[in-house]
Amino acid sequence: MRTGNWTAQYTINAASAAVATFTNMPAADAFLFSSTRHIVLADLSGMTYVRLKVNKQTTAATSGAKLTLRYSPTFSTVVSDYIDIGITEVSVGVDVVNQYLTSSWVEIDSTALCYEDVYLAVVGSGGNGTLDPTFGNISVSFC
User: Fold this and answer.
1) What secondary structure letter does DSSP report for 112?
2) Helices and strands, number each (H, E), in the chain
3) Residue 99, strand partner residues
4) What is the pLDDT of residue 1?
5) What distance in Å separates the CA atoms of residue 118 and residue 101, rounded to the nearest whole number?
6) Is the terminal CB of the chain with fewer CB neighbours within 10 Å at N or C?
7) What's the pLDDT tens digit per position in 114-124?
8) 65 — alpha (psi -120 to 50), left (phi > 0) or beta?
9) What is the pTM of this model?
């Protein structure tokens, strides 16, 4: 569902010579790859909808594991400071291999639009603390 002429894309993880591994993906909410280095600053001016895009590679996570897009109006290294950016959760299940996954286009929550700039974080959850799912490019699109 694209509307208007404004579009933006933010790369969360760029594919490199090797896959990126979410080592021991935890059950509880955790930043992507258990690191804050993938948090990006995004300008939501003129945006209405958002979707998450994930190139899922060869190692699957446990059943029910997912990546979710969240935001915070201020930079934080505390995962619980980030909340859902959409009026419904913007997420993809990652218990698959060798697939390009996209969430639905989801309307951005009006509270997030109160801020011109927000910090975006991809949060993983539902892992079993043992499996190491792998990923290629991860990005977020807005329109």
Assistant:
1) G
2) 0, 12
3) 56
4) 47
5) 24
6) N
7) 998 999 999 99
8) beta
9) 0.94
pLDDT digits (tens, 9 = 90+) for 21-52: 999 999 999 999 999 999 999 999 999 999 99
Angle at CA of residue 13, ends 92 and 5, nearest 5°: 75
**Dihedral of the CA atoms 137, 7, 49, 10 (nearest 10)?**
30
CB count within 10 Å of CB 28 equals 12
Rounded Cα–Cα distance for residues 54 and 32 (Å):
12
CB 127 within 8 A of CB 31: no
Work out the average pLDDT over 100-107.
98
Beta-bridge mates of residue 122: 69
Coil, helix or strand at residue 46: coil
Q: What is the C-alpha to C-alpha distance for residues 81 and 36, in angstroms, rounded to an integer?
A: 12
**Phi/psi at 5 (5° precision):** -100, -15
Helix or strand holding residue 42 (H, E)? strand 40-43
